[in-house]
Recover the amino acids of this structure.
């Protein structure tokens, strides 16, 4: 009997996270927490794990060379290429599982499912390139009987005809899709995707508990400021032009309310924005650039968060930390609505006076207590929804049921 039939399908591929983004890190940790003890986790693309501590073990998923690869290699013969193909072909066929794993490799023939954890990658805001390349890959896995599951993320809109065509082809391949909000679900259903395999679910990082911070009392007088460069390059001119001044006003009003502002960096791409912000402040706050889980711990103990990165908002809301936010995509509006805090979403295009008034009201002790009570109730409901999602995901992977 062929070794293919003996090989158990016990591998889950994780595709999407880019670990320069701490939200992506939190999603990866969430998958590891739920499935790491039950399945081998692997990835066919680089997740940029270097420098990240205490992450779940992620092996490199390797595919045996296809006839197409050999044919291309023969068109432009290269000893290096042919040796690489031969090594991969023989190695995956001959080496035992424990040897492959010791080398950080997993044979793709053991793949049971792929979890798409992209966060926000499919919609008119992006070029079709990623959708097209992933469609080709997902079609290959679909033909091999691999379960394709889209974990909670923002999706759409798909009004651009080119994006719409490719998105429909891609999303039709999935066994189940979990949009992160009702707006995303509507965008998916407008493509003609079967409603029976679409169900709204909150972000999976709701269930991820951070480690304790060294000095919780110190953080109780701190207000986190979490910038996002997307407010500069993905928004209208009034918003992008007003965003830096908005951040400056936020820091100034935190000081004026006898609290301590601290800047949390939630993605490497925001470094330049943080530097510019600091250059405009007479009194510069501390800057923290820790891993995502540590940052979530900071947000648990903060007096409040004024954030523009989506997962910093989820981290705050899920731990009942009062949060004021800004938006560049529909996922923000729906998140604040789900937590009953629509009034806490501000536009950077507001005047300095309006912004200051809103921040002062938000930072009052009475408002802080009121928001914490509201958030605790909604956070528990969101956690229950994520737990139900994981039960469905595991059932689909285990026996194909929905």
């Amino acid at each position: 009997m062929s070794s293919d039939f003996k090989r158990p399908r016990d591998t889950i591929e994780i595709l999407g996270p880019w670990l320069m983004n701490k939200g992506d890190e939190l999603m990866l940790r969430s998958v590891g927490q739920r499935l790491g003890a039950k399945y081998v986790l692997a990835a066919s693309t680089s997740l940029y794990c270097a420098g990240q501590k205490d992450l779940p073990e992620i092996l490199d998923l390797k595919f045996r060379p296809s006839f197409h690869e050999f044919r291309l290699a023969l068109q432009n013969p290269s000893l290096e290429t042919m040796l690489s193909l031969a090594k991969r072909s023989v190695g995956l066929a001959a080496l035992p599982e424990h040897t492959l794993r010791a080398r950080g490799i997993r044979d793709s023939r053991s793949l049971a499912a792929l979890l798409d954890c992209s966060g926000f990658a499919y919609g008119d805001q992006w070029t079709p390139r990623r959708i097209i390349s992933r469609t080709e890959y997902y079609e290959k896995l679909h033909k091999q009987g691999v379960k394709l599951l889209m974990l909670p993320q923002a999706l759409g809109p798909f009004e651009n005809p080119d994006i719409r065509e490719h998105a429909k082809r891609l999303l039709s391949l999935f066994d189940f899709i979990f949009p992160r909000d009702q707006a995303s679900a509507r965008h998916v259903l407008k493509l003609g995707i079967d409603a029976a395999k679409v169900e709204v679910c909150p972000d999976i990082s709701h269930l991820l508990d951070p480690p304790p911070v060294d000095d919780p009392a110190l953080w109780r007088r701190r207000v986190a400021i979490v910038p996002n460069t997307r407010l500069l390059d993905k928004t209208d001119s009034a918003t992008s032009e007003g965003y830096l001044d908005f951040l400056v006003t936020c820091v100034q009003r935190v000081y004026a309310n006898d609290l301590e502002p601290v800047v949390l960096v939630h993605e490497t791409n925001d470094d330049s924005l943080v530097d510019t912000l600091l250059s405009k402040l007479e009194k510069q706050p501390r800057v923290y650039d820790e891993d995502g889980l540590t940052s979530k711990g900071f947000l648990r103990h903060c007096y409040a968060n004024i954030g523009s990165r989506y997962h910093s908002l989820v981290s705050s809301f899920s731990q009942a930390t009062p949060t004021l936010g800004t938006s560049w995509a529909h996922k923000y509006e729906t998140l604040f609505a789900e937590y009953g805090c629509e009034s806490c979403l501000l536009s950077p295009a507001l005047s300095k006076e309006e912004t200051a008034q809103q921040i002062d009201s938000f930072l009052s002790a009475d408002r802080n207590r009121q928001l914490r009570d509201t958030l605790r109730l909604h956070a528990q409901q969101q956690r229950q929804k994520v737990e139900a999602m994981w039960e469905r995901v595991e059932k689909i992977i285990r026996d194909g049921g929905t």
Observations:
- The radius of gyration is 23 Å.
- The chain has a mean pLDDT of 91.
